[in-house]
Write a structure and sequence with these properties.
The protein contains 14 helices and no strands. The protein has about 325 residues and is an all-alpha fold. Helix 3 packs parallel to helix 8, helix 9 crosses helix 13 and helix 12 crosses helix 13. The mean pLDDT is about 85.
Length: about 325
Amino acid sequence: MTTGAEGMRLLWLATVVAGLTLLLGLSVAVGTRSVGWSDVVAALGGASGTIDQAAVAVRIPRTLLAGAAGVALGLAGAIMQGVTRNPLADPGILGVNLGASLAVVVGVAWFGITSSQAFIWVAILGAGVTAVFVYSIGSLGRGGATPLKLALAGVATSIAFASLVVAIILPRADIAGGIQSWRIGGVGGATFGAIGEVTPFLVGGVLLALLSARRLNSLALGDEMATGLGERVALARATAALSAILLCGATTAVCGPIGFVGLVVPHLCRLLVGVDHRWLLPFSALAGACLLLAADVMGRIIARPNELEVGVVTAFIGAPFFIWIVRRQRVREL
């Protein structure tokens, strides 16, 4: 027998799943060239005899990558907010995405890496090093790692890393074009091969994140209370953080740095299902996929016959949301 709260959560779950299903359909049907549903069905069945069916065949991997990246970023944002107890935590704001980007750019420019697997491993390493660096800087001084100090450390690190990326690629005309396009953040060049290579990392990150839900509930009570409940706080925080690093690094390697998804999604999901991470994490994953798919479809429609990369659209959505969160929170509380 379900309670009223659980009934509402199940209702919202059905709503989010229905919305995700609709957006998956729109993603393969809508673009610079609109396609009829009969061609969509035919293309899903393997047909590619007409221009419309060929267009759908190109959009299918793009749709899958957008959904997978949205799952990863939404989940990573919820994990980061839970680990740091910071309402401003997000892979972009804390500099993790830029750290992964810098690592990839250094690998391409200085070490000549070319394989997708190398990109993924280097991006995960960069994300991990950056997460440790930002948390260490934010922990200095009185009061430890407060939300405001972490946010400031992350923003400062992002600015510094972005400058380093520009400094590295400016003298390298041979790679500048491709890197600049990748840095915007998008899913337009998706292929089944790239999706297959990144899938094990994303699956591992998702499973590790979901297994951390109970521990994150304990951490939300405070370190002393969590320890009193028998939780190994350092291990719980490290395990959850590892899942976010895997998700951010792997996604950045394939799509480039896409910001604000991990900020917006967990806050909206808390309004729907509350703060219990056993519900919040799955909802953040599904809602993240919805947001990124919707942003990708909007980017194709707004700039027809061209398109806006999904990273640009999420920035337009997320920046006002970030300002609203900051204004909603008292600076003293941050």
